């Protein structure tokens, strides 16, 4: 599976989000990661469906990887799908009907994803692996950009990749949080193919070289 770099809009310029997305699109990258926070599941706030709609209206045609850090994601998937999300991922931790929500995301015409926090065991997401397009393993406690990479998550990446092989599944395996060229390389060695990078991408002195390095890992 070819590596994908998904720069995180959270690390972009919040007064000029369209311009930050345009930087990614003009580099010829395919994906943009969009973090949605509710101030409840995570102690921070970020964007809403209108942000996604406005990106689309402003000519952003990137694959929008929308990461819902919400206590009640099932209430918002339709709004994000209508706004132009390409993929919608939901966390396993809130007690909601995950199977139904994942099904509904696909019925709305989007790809779906399941997300687990650093402290959540792989066993929690196992029942859903055959129903998802993407598994996102958080490599920080979600809520804020710029946190240090959690190396203790590496064994879980290997575990998810092994399950993928054993079951002949083809979901993408994505990491998010503290990703830079060094941590991305460690994750690649554990089977990761999709890399969210906020701070390290937007602050890279040469973003093209950064993207090329991820592609070649
Ligand atoms: C963290 C978010 C991340 C964040 C990553 O809660 O889910 O997507 O943007 O930022 P960096 O790459 O700076 O750790
Ligand atoms: Zn994210």
Summary, kept brief:
Helices cover 33% and strands 20% of the residues. With 217 residues, it is α/β, with parallel strands linked by helices. The protein has a single domain (4-216), classed as Aldolase class I (TIM Barrel, Alpha-Beta Barrel).
- What is the molecular shape? globular
List the domain count as a whole number: 1
CATH architecture: Alpha-Beta Barrel
Q: List the strand order in the largest sheet.
A: 1-8-7-6-5-4-3-2
Mean pLDDT: 98
**CATH homology group:** Aldolase class I
Major sheet characteristics: 8 strands, parallel
Structural class: alpha/beta
How much of the sequence lies in strands comes to 15-25%
Number of DSSP helical runs: 8
Q: How many β-strand runs?
A: 8
- Helicity level: 25-40%
Order of helices and strands: EHEHEHEHEEHEHEHH
- What is the rounded Rg? 16 Å
Bound molecules: D-xylitol-5-phosphate, zinc ion
CATH class reads Alpha Beta
CATH topology: TIM Barrel
Structure, explained:
The protein is α/β, with parallel strands linked by helices. It has a single domain, classed as Alpha-Beta Barrel (TIM Barrel). Helices cover 33% and strands 20% of the residues. It is built from eight helices and eight strands. The chain has helices at residues 17-26, 49-57, 77-83, 98-107, 154-166, 181-189, 199-202, 207-215, and strands spanning 4-7, 31-37, 63-69, 87-91, 111-116, 134-138, 172-176, 194-197. It has an eight-stranded parallel beta sheet. Strand 3, helix 3 (77-83) and strand 4 (87-91) form a beta-alpha-beta unit. Helix 2 runs parallel beside helix 3 (77-83). The radius of gyration is 16 Å and the shape is globular. The mean pLDDT is 98. Zinc ion (ZN) binds next to strand 2.
